[in-house]
Amino acid sequence: MTKMMRLKKDVKEKRELVNIVIDRFLPRKDEYPKVLHKAMRHTLFAGGKRVRPYLTITTYQLFGHMDKKILPLAAALELLHTYTLIHDDLPDLDDDEKRRGKPSSHIEFGENIALLTGDALLLEAFKMMLMVDADADFKAKLIKEFAEVSGSEGLIGGQVADIECEHKDFTADEIDFIHLNKTAKMLTTSVRYGAMLANAREDDIKRVTEYGNLIGLMFQIVDDILDIEGDVHKLGKKTGTDIRGGKATYPKLYGMKKTKEIVNDLKTRAKDIIGYYGPKAEYLQKICEYITTRRF
């Protein structure tokens, strides 16, 4: 079995573990109000890659832990991520009618239900974090960082900056702010949480944080590329939406050739940083390849 095949097998196994945790945690789709609980599951179980939970679990394992203690924390990150996808797809934001090959939440259930579904998933994410097997002070620390990363100085701030740069000239600093906050911070938090729950040393947390920043930025830049070169059927949604929406993207600022060079540079740097841990970090190194070569 090749290294990439082993990675794909590992991704699949961990995705299934996270799916089980989420399925058991959420209200059943036939619980009242049915439309809300059905909508929550609609996007969550539409075939997501579970990259963020995967990074959390694999970083946790990097520091010698193999138990299921990490799963609620990994699942909480996926709930948060799915809330952002549902809101991103709304007409007032990215206006995407498909998500992972299925109708977006607002197409399936209406804009009002989709908006409230995203809100519900965000709150459920915080609730799930309380299930983490740790002392109260540590959980408070996790939740504080979670709120900061997802709020006005993180994810939402990046989304607002993204809107403000539409159909305008933008600078390298502006697009880096958008990509680092809108996307990268959540991937960085994913690896940080794995290290933190594993009681990693401060220098280790600093190292994986740098790794997370690099792969997070890389992930969003690859999204920019796929919006231009991606296959509609593999992506599960329309391409060219960034261009039509006048979005700030790396190809728009740097051109496609330079953008791909930047991706390769980020990949090399990320692999070098996590390579500090040797063979134990094999999957975290290979995930860099997975991100840069993905087609959806």
Q: What is this structure, in a nutshell?
A:
The chain is mainly α.
Account of the protein in words:
- By secondary structure, the chain is mainly alpha-helical.
- The chain has one domain (3-293): Farnesyl Diphosphate Synthase.
- Helices cover 72% and strands 1% of the residues.
- The chain is built from 15 helices and two strands.
Protein traits:
296 residues; mainly alpha; Farnesyl Diphosphate Synthase; two-stranded antiparallel sheet; 2 strands; 72% helix; globular
How much is the average pLDDT?
93
State the total count of DSSP E strands: 2
Count of domain modules:
1
Determine the oligomeric state from the structure: single chain
The rough form would be described as: globular
Strand ordering within the main sheet = 1-2
Q: Mind sketching the topology for me?
A:
Layout lengths: L2 H23 L8 H11 L6 H12 L8 H19 L8 E2 L2 E2 L1 H5 L1 H19 L6 H15 L4 H10 L7 H26 L4 H28 L2 H4 L5 H4 L5 H5 L1 H19 L7 H12 L3
Antiparallel strand pairs: 1-2
Helix pairs in contact: 1-3, 1-4, 1-15, 2-6, 3-4, 3-9, 4-6, 4-9, 7-9, 8-9, 9-10, 10-14, 14-15
